[in-house]
Amino acid sequence: MTTLDNYDFCKPYIMDNEYILWEGAPQKGLVLTSRDLALIPFSLIWLAFSLFWEVSAIRTTGSLFMVLWGLPFVGVGIYLLFHKWVDKVTGLSTFIMVLMFIQLMFNPPLMLWTNRERFDFRYRKPVAVTGISTILNLLVTVLAVLNTEYKAEARIIGSVFVQTLFGSFFAILLLKKGLCLFKSFNI
Hints:
The protein contains 6 helices and no strands. It has helices at 34-61, 64-81, 83-90, 94-119, 124-146, 151-177.
């Protein structure tokens, strides 16, 4: 146990039965761990492949769905490469960031389908899907919050789960139809 003789500046903030456990300052600058030695090459390969996917999807398929499907993978590659900086700037944990990327990956198919239905003046199905997803989101989120002590994370997980469920259904639907929303163009 350390005495507070050298720490006059903090005496007003510390009770009589409390003491200082640690003193010092965190390391400054870029601190690489052994985990980073494996993560950096993996993230570079991931990012390179996802950028290759995007260019190939734009040049060959002409499918907006395929282009949008690849964008979250590019985002994950950028995040993996710069995750320490992103976590520091946003203040969010890696777990929350991964959930956000999962939601980004499964949201475009749902939005493409909804916009296509609206464009063709068919409103019943999008309204029904929106209503069902809202109610399911509420139920899943309430159940998740009631069954865990991590309330904020449970709310996010509930929303991501429902988005992923509906998004994956519409991704399969769009892939089956082979929906091509714009012509291929050269870059």
